Amino acid sequence: MSEKYVGRPVDRLDGAIKTVGEARYAGDHRYPDLAHAALVHATIPRGRITAVEDAAARAVPGVIDVLTHENAPAMKPPPKVTLLNLSTLAIGTSVNHLATDEVHWNGQPIAVVVAESQEAARHAASLVRVTYEEKPAVVDFAAEEPNAVPQKSNALQSARADKGDAEKALADAEVSVDLRFTTPQHSHNALEPHTTTAVWDGDRLTVHEGTQSMAWTRRHLAQRFGVPERNIRMLSPFVGGGFGGKGQVWAGTLLAVLAARATGRPVRLALTRAGVHHAVGGRTPSAQRVALGADRDGRLTALIHTSVARTGRVGGHLEQITAASRHLYDSPNIHLRQSLVQLDLIANTSMRAPGESIGTFALESAVDELAWELGMDPIELRMRNEPERDPIEGRRFTHRMLREVYAVGAERFGWSERDPRPGSMRDGKWLVGMGVATAYHPSLQMPASVTVRLDADGGVVVRCALHEIGVGAATAQAQIAADELGVPLESVRVEIGDSDLPEGPMAGGSAQTASAASAVLEACRKLRRSALDLARRSAGSPLRGATDPRARDGGLYQDGRGETYAEILARAGRDHLEARAGVGMLRFLARTVREQRRWMKAASGAQFCEVRVDQDTGEVRVSRWVGVFDIGRVINEKTVASQLRGGIVMGIGLALTEETLVDRRTGRVVNASLADYHVPVHADVPRIDVHCLDDPDPTMPLGLVGVGEVGITGVGAAVANAVRHATGRRVQDLPITLDKLLPH
Amino acid sequence: MRVNGVVESLDIEPWVSLLDALRDHLGLTGPKKGCDQGACGACTVLADGVRINACLALAMQYADKEITTIEGIAKDGEGRHPLQEAFVRHDGLQCGYCTSGQICSAIAMLDEHAAGMPSVLTPSVQPASAVLSDDEIRERMSGNLCRCGAYNGILDAIRDVAGRETVS
Ligand code: FES
Ligand code: FES
What is the interface pTM, i.e. ipTM, of the complex? Predict the structure, then answer.
């Protein structure tokens, strides 16, 4: 393979269409008789609906129907979640919407209004009067935390680990820290609110929706609406951001499809921004303890990391909060435990680096605090505890370059200029602080199928139901296929975002690019072989006798002899060649389990942060950032850097501003808007210097490791550690708002 | 109302927002709805060259204005506006949902700056005093959220087109 495109900073292929406003998202499709739907949300956290008064709503001109549990056609109940059928992981909550009078959380959708216009639907929804019989509800995470029960482990995720006797080692340690941390609930707040346009034609269904999991969603809809999967087509060519929030099927999707079926009209249901908070889960809050013991030289003797998270009583993602503590430090004694409480709130779900993003905040803050206790440079402390093998299970790392990322990062950041004394660096009224933390995220692959077609005119078509949530999904695969087949990038077309295409991986777990790449590589290999076979069968081909030609210049060549694919196909009288590749679920799971026993694979990095803290108000500004990452081979420097920066930006939000506020009495999200939930804006984000080592992980396709999530890990701690350096104050409760830094 | 140089007549209720009129009635879906509350900037369009949040504007109030959306910013409707190209070159986007708002906002922001309009960071209200530093651009663009965090690329694209050197 000649590498012309892989590794180059190619412009994203869908950049042009996105910048001229022609990319069509789920809410951008017009149908002549399109109706609009709006949700009515419950206003109590738990209880029963005793009456629904919808006369006023029905009287609004343009209203077509008001669907409630009293009149809505029934959906089949959601199936039980099981690893034997991964599509059951697509279930947002176990509630069978509009089939029950029970209310399980404040904000649960309990009615749908369908009308001729958005305005009529929303106005009518505001007129639906619901009375309830309230039941006692448990909604306060902090109050419930002492009642947490151990989280169960499953085949893929372990919720506990023990090595040696960590508590005893901690008690005996020469130096130790024992800290409690809390992190609040977060919301993905993808800029595109969840939107579904559903169109029934008899028992065939077309769904336009920005989703991170077309295949699972389709399977789930087929089951819920009792139609064969092949009758459903999901179209999702552009997704206006996801971050985990569009990985599952939430009420909006189901109720749009239900409303379309009930009214016989194409229906668009676009959640309001508040509706996103009420109908889609976010990241769990957490309470964590990290205790570290070490000898005077900074060698760890004890590492304890325990966590409490929550789920909803009606479902929720189990977060691997202590996961990074399994892999980062060599300690003879390790104790990890994850516990849960169940609340009467909407099910939580995965959000960018679930577990690691908030887990590394606690772990890496504690490591920094230990460095203060020891009077040691925090990078040096980390290097002294860098393990040779995965500390608990003793597996080998496929790729471990934390020493290198720290060395490169320290150089680029100018770490040596840091005066280690807290509060010692100033710039006028600003206290300047510098902090570091480790980024870490396990790498994963999922099954993917692709077809690659070579046309007689030299064009190449790659087909796979990938999700374009902003990662440049098609661009990376086009680069790979162009190199593998030796054709110009311009002649490769990648078709994605349509469930009629070969099934792709879900866009989650930072797995999409590598998963698809592995199938694209295999399909291209098959295609080259078929092309060569064709050529060798024909007497006139210069490739007769060729055994191992190279793909280049639009064809196959060996020892200066060869011909283009177009010539090969023309001589054979074929108008195209096609190859399919991909592994089935069973083979895939078997391989994953085998690999997991053998190797620890991950993306990692070093986050360097400089903050400025206003000495009078406690306002924190992030003024500089350097992130150096080991993500194996870089396929596209431009889109990879963008994704890593995006993770860091979201991490700055996590560190300083983001917090979903749940009313402790009513369980209602009280800041359900972008005015009150503060995501980073332009002015909050400095120049972010991202650098990748670009050293392939030999066990991954092309050596690449997914980058979607590692960028956010370690960010919270890097900021907190910089604040500690600037002010001498250790903030253990996110977000680091100025009230936590005011002099007491 | 003139939209992208074309006179459009609409028969709509007085409460229809400019954003919904453009998207649902005129089929111009470039402007996006991220919040419908004036908090995200995804719906930014130009009204007589001035940037506004179309979700906070009633269409009726703009009957005599010239509205320009992302679909209409390329000069003469041909080719692409330099900012559109710069956004691609500098990867000032990921999912693309905020992009049309960012670009429309940036066009008007550059005009505001050229007209001497100060921002909160501008040291003096004398027109000449506003050097378009990186921080000025960040400040002036802060009404346009990008949850994908493409801010560095957006800044680079704007600076490229504004033709300025890095001034931090
Ligand atoms: S949609 Fe108008 S500002 Fe968000
Ligand atoms: S590119 Fe996704 S919100 Fe800006």
Answer: 0.96
